[in-house]
Amino acid sequence: MRTAFIGLGVMGYPMAGYLSKSGHDVVVYNRTSSKAAKWCKEYEGSSAGTPANAADGADIVFTCVGNDNDVREVILGEAGVINGMSSGAIIVDHTTASATIAREIHSIASDKSIGFLDAPLSGGQAGAESGQLTIMVGGDEDVFERVMPLMNCYAKAITLIGSVGSGQLAKMVNQICIAGVVQGLAEGLHFAKRAGLDSAKVIDAISKGAAQSWQMENRWQTMTNGEFEFGFAVDWMRKDLAIALEEAKQNGASLEMTALVDRFYAEVQALGGNRWDTSSLLARLEEICG
Fold this sequence. Notes:
By secondary structure, the chain is α/β, with parallel strands linked by helices. The chain has helices at about 10-20, 35-40, 50-55, 70-75, 100-110, 125-130, 140-150, 165-195, 200-205, 215-225, 235-250, 255-270, 280-290, and strands at about 1-5, 25-30, 45, 60-65, 90-95, 115-120, 120, 135-140, 155-160.
């Protein structure tokens, strides 16, 4: 199948690579052209000078960029992919963005007989590199069925949540839950240290019970060591939480814990931790208590 992949960041770069290794024809576009050139040296495929050129003749166009404005630019802009696509083609947006932009693009794409899925990701850079991502999808079932074999190239779990926008809403739920789990783990490790406990023994004990989580198993040791260079950055998390908090204003949900943890992440940023990973909430507690 002929595909285009727009956005070769830490997620998109390996995802586009998996499509190429699976035998699909891949044309890539990245705002920094040197990144696209590097990709083309590593994988079978070619690069284009604009998103529209990359999308020309593509059956499916994948996008994975930064935020709503980036999505709007690479899809709907003057040189956006929608201006290079033919009737019957499909856009799959893997960006974590708002449900509003997903619905906007779907409406415009539908007028051109172009399919659209919002398909945000979970699993981070490690999941993208290992081809083990989790994908939450919003869109029509027939469009989903056409795209699913390609997403299987880089994902371990793909779920059609509901209509367009549902994928983004599910990703908001994901980030809300992670925020609470990481804050709880940070406070637990902080408490253990202040109580003079052996953190390794404590984690070994409680990770066998109801407190167990992915964050606990994969981050407790690096957190204890004060190492926060393992994936999803605080800047990105705050972007995602802002989307969830804004959506909550619209639907009336109460996100008291999420708003609190978002403020804690702002304090981490003030410590210079913009690019630290999300487990750096512990650094804030250590700074407060000395």
